[in-house]
Each structure stands twice: as structure tokens, then as C-alpha cells.
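Continuing the series of single-chain predictions for the mutant panel. This is the parent chain; the variants come on the following pages.
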Amino acid sequence: MKHVTILEAEAQFEKLVAEVEQTGDEVVITRNGAPVARLVRENAIGQDHEFTPEQIEQRRQAIRNLRQLARELKISATQEEIKEWINEGRH
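Parent structure:
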């Protein structure tokens, strides 16, 4: 998943749309470092997203990396606490 600022999205809009259309990857548009919008291929809207084996492995590796970092930093939090933290950041 690619992240771009609003200014980058404005400057590269046609290119980003073509990229999303061809690859099916999503583009996250950020303002001041925070996600504010996603650019997704139309057939992905409102449907269950089916991931490729490569995407599944990337997500699994990301989870393993986060768990390893949490162990190294000695962070112990439940899934509920993490969800609350995420939701707090959305307000």
C-alpha cells in the first residue's frame, strides 16, 4: 500500500489512478502524516477483498515484525487496548 500526501496526490492524480487500476493496489492519501482517504479500484469497493498469496505473506510478516518490536520494547497490551488506541486516534 502506497502513501502519498495530498499535494503529491494532486500532482500525480492521473498516474495514481492508472497505478491503482492496473495493479489493484491501494493508495492512502495523507494530511500532516495522518491518513485521510484511500484510492481503490472500483471493483474493490464494497466487496470482500481477496488477497494474493504474496499480500497475505506480507501482512503476516508485518504482524511478526510488530510482535517482535513489541517484545523488544516490552510492550504488553491486549487487542482491545490496541483497538481503543487506534479508535482514539481517529477522533
